[in-house]
Amino acid sequence: MNRMMAPPLGAQALRGAVDWAIATRRSVRAYLPRPVPREEIEAILSTARYSASGMNMQPWHVHVLTGPAKAGLSAAIAALDDDPERSGELLEPYDYYPREWLSPYLERRRKVGWDLYGLLGIAKGDKQRMHLQHGRNYRFFDAPVGLFFTIDRALQEGSLLDCGMFLQSVMIAARGRSLHTCPQAAFLKFHRRIAEYLEIPAGRMLVCGMSLGYADESSIENSLVTEREPVSTFTTFHDTTKETRA
């Protein structure tokens, strides 16, 4: 791709296409068994590689799982997940979520959880069904493609930011091909088992996993559309000069 080429669409159509891809990206939790051709996966990653990164470090590395390789890892993780004693001892490679939840993040977290469980008919306190639903993460929600993203452990927090921009590019490029995704931090506690299975070098850290495939729009969980705050709640505009003291 020529990075200096002219837009393939007119200004209005181009804006609409980009906005559509961003706005329709959502976490899909049920997929069709329809395979995703390898050339499509490679095309998505080829587009995402143009993501911004500090000093052009490009810190990401991607592991792509399909077929028996994906099924084998899912089975290995499920065996751990179904053993409370063993899984309870597992530690994540880094803190993705806060150790102490504060408002408004706690309320947002609870809402998306109960909205999903409500659609699925899972009652509050039904730990068995909650466990089974959460365990679907480790089957990539039956998506035909599973992805894992890693960075070098020697890098700092800025490279996590870079990797996040790369992840977003993957998800947007997927939408441009009528595909859906689900980024998954749920895999983090199993990072050692994943590293062993995929032979990931000790010097690399798992950032997250991701499901990729064609959404099963008949599944009730895919009707979940999470709410987003309006621009006015998270933006402060500064348009006047303020005096500063010497």
UniProtKB/TrEMBL annotation:
Spell out the InterPro entries in the cross-references.
Answer: Nitroreductase, Nitroreductase-like
User: Pfam families from the xrefs?
Assistant: Nitroreductase (PF00881)
Q: Keyword set for this entry?
A: Flavoprotein, FMN, Oxidoreductase
- Tell me the SUPFAM superfamilies matching this sequence: FMN-dependent nitroreductase-like
Identify the CDD domains for this entry. PnbA_NfnB-like
Ranges for the Nitroreductase domain?
Answer: 22-214
**Source species, domain of life:** Bacteria
Key word Flavoprotein present: yes
**What cofactors does the UniProt entry give for this protein?**
FMN
Instruction: List, alphabetically, the PANTHER family matched.
Output: NAD(P)H NITROREDUCTASE YDGI-RELATED, NITROREDUCTASE
**Similarity comment: family membership:** Belongs to the nitroreductase family.
Q: What's this protein's name? A: Nitroreductase
What species is given as this protein's source? Variovorax beijingensis
